[in-house]
From TrEMBL:
MF annotations from Gene Ontology: ATP binding
Domain ABC transporter: from-to ranges: 6-240
Record keywords: ATP-binding, Nucleotide-binding
SMART domains in the record: AAA
Record protein name field: Iron complex transport system ATP-binding protein
PANTHER family, alphabetized: ABC TRANSPORTER ATP-BINDING PROTEIN, HEMIN IMPORT ATP-BINDING PROTEIN HMUV
Source organism of the structure: Shimia sagamensis
Domain of life of the source: Bacteria
Amino acid sequence: MRTGHLVAKDICWRPAKNQPFLLHPVSFEVYPGRVLGVVGPNGAGKSTLLRMIYHYQKPTTGQIMVDGQDLWGMSAKAAACKVAAVLQEQPGAFGLTVRDIVALGRTPHRSALSSSGAHDAEIVTQAIARMQLEHLSTRNFDTLSGGERQRVMVARALAQQPQVLVMDEPTNHLDIRHQLEILSLIRSLGLTIVVSLHDLNMASDVCDAILLLKDGHCHGFGSADEVLSEKLVSDTFLVTAQRQKLSVSQNQHLTFHLPT
């Protein structure tokens, strides 16, 4: 049976008791192996939502369940065995090689006094191979291009062997070729994925479901056709959105311009 059934029940967050909510109650469900895209304008609450899923910010109220287990009812180490994250901010490597970085993904699975063994090494090798990084495994992480670094961070997440993978703007600052590589990767991983994206057409192509946020409120949850409608996108982003059919593929594509 596939694992990675993610359920959020009325989760919300505010920095302190006397401060306003940055995310108001949101509920959604992602079935194993499916991709949920989180979209919305800047300041909509996307990063706040993702932080709660990868066990960085505890929900003020509500519950996040992975395969029926309360994510915030377990230790950070146990949560890291279930949920991995690939974030926009990449860590300083301090002279670490690609293999060293990927091996860090095994940390949650080791006890405090144990060192990595043959089993961990095999998993790291598999993650490196899956991301086609063998030729870079001994390279210093700091010498890599943006696209290569992103692939290393995904490999590190895969080495965690999570049930759920969170990706925060994985195509940000990448050129077109590397964007396409990351999108192809998302489709191929077979994990339950929650990914925030700025590009709505990209989200429509890659994601099985869309969660649309604005000002910390949920403005829609469902299929891309349902949520990324001309009216809802126009109202949420304060633009005029229109759907056009691409002549070759007949796929629909959103275009935007400022309202007159």
